[in-house]
Amino acid sequence: MGDQTNEAGFVHEVSALRDVVSQVQRLRIKTTNIQGEIGNLSGGDQQKVALARGMITECDLLILNHPTRGIDVGARSDTYDMLKNLAANGTSIMIIGSEMSELVELCHRIAVMRDGQIVSIQNNKEANEDTLMEDVLGEQI
């Protein structure tokens, strides 16, 4: 019986490693060691790993604070694709951010806060960078 348990554990571990390798390849994460420290990856690749965890765990709600801050254009595009994929598969995503173009591209609804208060909630169809900036500043541009 012990041999069956060990064999089942080994098969599960091999399957899990295959899944990791598949995700690393699919997300174009640059690493030389799939069992290495996440802290050794670039900022963009660290972000992809964090989002991949959300994809694997099939969470219901993902809250992101400035999800693309400090990452390069390629990683940003990959991150946008991952977020759109998560949303298409039923995950609710709340993005806290200040980059208007990112919010307009990714969000269905955008709430603008000024001085700790929500001053507007716009549907994406009505939102653009100018209307959001007007709400942020509290005056028409």
From TrEMBL:
Organism superkingdom: Bacteria
Annotated ABC transporter domain residues: 16-68
ATP-binding among keywords: yes
InterPro entries, sorted: ABC_carbohydrate_import_ATPase, ABC_transporter-like_ATP-bd, P-loop_NTPase
An MF annotation (GO) of this entry: ATP binding
Gene3D superfamilies: P-loop containing nucleotide triphosphate hydrolases
Keywords assigned by UniProt, alphabetized: ATP-binding, Nucleotide-binding, Repeat, Transport
Full protein name: Sugar ABC transporter ATP-binding protein
